[in-house]
Amino acid sequence: MGITAKNFIASYTKPESLITEEYPEEKPKLPENNRNFPFLVFDDDPDAGLRCVSCKICERECPPQCIYIVQERDENGRPVKQPKVFDIDISVCMSCQICVEVCPFDAIKMDQEYELSSLDRFDPLIHDRQRLSKSNEYYHSIHPAEAAAVDAVLAEKAARKAGNKKAADNES
């Protein structure tokens, strides 16, 4: 009753504080730290630029075990640092963000997409690699501060790696 009384009084003293959102037409602006379900970040190309190297740490650490990863292999049977299959069962995922925290490559992040309804019963519950892959620009649009920090760390690592390679080439 206290909240009702507070809103009643505020409607007369500060009417701008009570704004009704027309939901289907106007989508609410979600806070940057909002999280819903994971997605995979790719840099340039959705296939070759995927940051995930299929190390399977997120699969092992996931409490409800809703992540399924199969590593890509070349024609000789050697593993390639890219997932062939990356599935997340959204019906089981509890949005705990542990997969994001344990990923050493900043490949998996939390999305803000919340309209996941569908007419089909089971297919939309399993998000495959194509549906999970979203660009780095999309990541910048939903989490600008976090994405800028991640890009700065990745650029620093790339510069350090290039410097080490150049130093090794000069020694040879």
Given the helix and strand composition, which structural class is it?
alpha+beta
Task: Supply the CATH class of the domain at 29-144.
Answer: Alpha Beta
Q: Please write the string of helix (H) and strand (E) elements.
A: HEHEEHEEHEHH
Overall mean pLDDT: 88
Instruction: Give the biggest beta sheet.
Output: 3 strands, mixed
CATH third-level topology of the domain at 29-144: Alpha-Beta Plaits
Helicity level: 25-40%
Global shape: extended
Number of strands: 6
Rg, rounded, reads 21 Å
Helix count, DSSP H or I runs of 4 or more residues: 6
Model regions low in confidence, pLDDT < 50 over at least 5 residues: none
Produce the secondary structure layout:
Layout: H1 2-13, E1 38-42, H2 57-61, E2 67-73, E3 79-89, H3 98-102, E4 108-110, E5 126-127, H4 129-132, E6 133-135, H5 136-142, H6 144-171
Parallel strand pairs: 1-6
Antiparallel strand pairs: 1-4, 2-3, 3-5
Helix pairs in contact: 5-6
Features:
alpha+beta, 6 strands, Alpha-Beta Plaits, three-stranded antiparallel β-sheet, three-stranded mixed β-sheet, 172 residues
Question: Your description of this structure?
Answer:
- It is a single chain.
- 35% of the residues lie in helices and 18% in strands.
- The protein is of the alpha+beta class and 172 residues long.
- It has a domain at 29-144: Alpha-Beta Plaits (2-Layer Sandwich), CATH 3.30.70.3270.
- The strands form two sheets. A three-stranded mixed sheet has the order 4-1-6.
- Strand 2 (67-73) and strand 3 (79-89) form a beta hairpin.
- Helix 5 packs across helix 6 (144-171).
- It is extended.
- The model has no long low-confidence stretch (mean pLDDT 88).
